[in-house]
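Self-study notes.
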Amino acid sequence: MRVPGENLRINGERLWQTIHTIAEIGPGVAGGSNRQTVTDEDGEARSLFQRWAEEAGCTTGVDQMGSMFLTRPGTDPDALPVMVGSHLDTQPTGGRYDGVLGVLAALEIVRTLNDLDIKTRHPITIVNWTNEEGSRFAPAMMGSGVFAGVISQDEAYARTDADGKRFGDELARIGWRGVEEVGARKMKAFFELHIEQGPILEAEGVDIGVVTHGQGLRWIEVTVTGEESHTGTTPMPMRKNAGRGLAQITELVHEIAMANQPNAVGTIGQVNVYPNSRNIIPGKAVFTIDFRSHELDCLNGMLERLMSEAPKLCEGLGLEFSAEIVGQFDPPAFDESCVKALRDAAERLGYSHRDIVSGAGHDTCWINKIYPTAMVMCPCVDGLSHNEAEDITMEWSTAGAEVLFHAVVETAEIVG
């Protein structure tokens, strides 16, 4: 199999400009981005991305979850495509690079192949997966999850946001509900470039992270129910304060995660307290717990301890406890041949690299269940992500995109 020579490089300045052009759609308030899934801003970014890809000679397909597939043809009409991409949706106060880098680096691969007049036997398909973030509609990685058969399309369509709007309705409203059956497309392999979203690569001065495993996660939505009453007239011993339940479970989550160091994390994320009035004792608290580990036994053990101890804490406070798992996947191990292609590409290009475990969930984690996949990461400043201050350098984005380019093109097989 021919591999691209080390002299084949992407146009790093063009990639950088493309990233910051799309960031003008749905700008945040502090330099980042707010393009939550299936909002008008998401729709506008999709249209711009589609125009760029079609100008580069790609044909567009959209499935019923709104995931976009932009294909550069190969020379063999029967060859399965090599897919590469990530997501364009962001957190409400997201950065400019999370997900977006992976989609636009995939576009840069196609543009570079065009510039160099290189043909591949396998088609190359750029993918923009719908609702990777899961911030507006849980669970995360929804488009890829339905594609991989781990989430039902009906369940995804029925999910509601904080305003009670249904995902399926919003997808149709912005005009990006496609006709293609979800999961009908086949692929040879899938690759994804992403910022690390952690501090390891920058701290160690390493150019490239070759992701060998991902963390599994359990998202639990907890409801603690007490009794609303007046803050000034209700004696302390007679209170059924849902806020106390929230506080004690917050400490419990921390204790559980610390007991499983260094292989686990645990966080209380979204919190809603009702009726959220300054002179009413909270009668209900609804909040999310995020447990993650790359070890399955550890992950399941954390969940079991929570479900054993949290109800007893609440019972001791006169409160009711209920919980629902709203998102979950087991720790994935990525395909060895795809991982090797990334590692070899970094070596060939002269970039320093190390193996790394992804602490965040990614679409690759779901696609890994059905097709060979791998991920490559570049550093980000201070490991900061899901924050408008998220930052990388053009040199980092270029290095990551070049490693991605070489692995994808090698897998797609150069012709001639």
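Second protein, same conventions, sequence then structure:
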Amino acid sequence: MKPANLLILMSDEHNPKVMGCAGHPIVKTPNIDALAARGTMFSSAYTTCPVCVPARAAFAVGKYVHQIGFWDNADAYDGSIPSWHHRLREAGHRVVSIGKLHFRGHEGDDNGFSEEIIPMNIIEGKGDLMGLVRKDLPERGLSWKIAKLAGPGETPYTAYDREITTRAQIWLREEAPRYRDKPWVLFVSFVCPHFPLVAPADFYYQYPLETMPLPKQYAQSERPDHPYLRDYSGSFAYDRYFDPDKLRKAIAAYYGLCSFVDDNVGRVIRTLEAVGLAGSTRIMYTSDHGDNLGARGLWGKSTLYEEVAGVPLIVAGADIPRGKRVSTPASHVDTYPFIMACVGEDRPAMYEGHPGVSLLALARGERPDRNVLSEYHGMGSTTGAFMIRHGKYKYVHYVAYRPQIFDLERDPEELRDLAGDPAHSSVLEDCRARLFAICNPAEVDARAKRRQAELLEAAGGREAVIRRGDLGFTPPPGYPAVFG
């Protein structure tokens, strides 16, 4: 690709099914849809980890979580492993972040950016210490927040996203024109549609409550019975606090927040066009992970279903195919080589053990012989969980529990687990072997838990972190933390 500027737009917890361009029948995302129409959309894209902190560390470094060892929401990126920000800054590019990072945030940490504008990092430089407890899981004290708060209104998150949007518009107008010698990268990172499920009125009321669909497999009799899901729902008891009215309000608010994110995306892109930089800037839109949104009675993240491990991933601009949809599985590790190529730094010195394949190669039809991976080692789980895509199959491996396998061609909603079907035993074994060719799940699980045990001891032990309580969600800059 010819070197050009790059604008990366990242949201937080955007279910990849909840976009117009993904075929959603209700949700309005006209700006994201327009970006997909003039670029390439990856319809089977995955996060490296379905929770914020490890996902963002892996996105920064361009490697899988088990390669870098930032395991959970209390073990955040600290700049110690070179990121694409470090590499590009060292090569003379201006690399600026605006908004959520969810890094460690200690004074003196060098995250590799030329400038960090209103960054949001983990609380107190410690994050979610309760997530370090990986056995006899405590119930989260603030699980009631998702249901109780659901509805129309404003929150610190919506205010923060408006400020992020404004700061991005200012940077594009006042700073971007100053950097003409080498392409710049602007990383604009929003916090919505992450809960609290409170959407600004203009967006919430686009979705009448009587039209809100019931989440799939929501009835108690329909919910899958798997020990991993029991662990998670027992610790994050979100669904206990829902009634039919709150359920409809929560879904409407999430849809409204997706439209709110879309509106902010549109404002930033229109500013890029207004200042005459659209022709010399490529754009990427993605999210750190998705959201269960009530499916199977689950809320939040931390599972490996498509709604959560899947992510929206769209790229557009010069040399990128227009109006194309790529079904070949893609991963956030593939964004690292794409970023390097975008700004003209696609050379061997920029890579060291990076497993990604450039999104441009995938967009142009390359089908690499590999399996993309997502893994989880954090809050609400007692065992490591690993997912790979192999052709039409999704295989989910739990170190301590029985596996799952889904045929995503015949069953895209993952309603039927085929792991117990003798007709699929050979597929199960093949997928297991392919996962073990990437990593040894038991070794990775043990390594994660050793690190978490060390951090737990340093924090005063199990009872101390339980007394500290549940944060619910990280406050943005300037807002107090409220534990419960």
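Instructor comment on the second fold: The chain has a mean pLDDT of 97.
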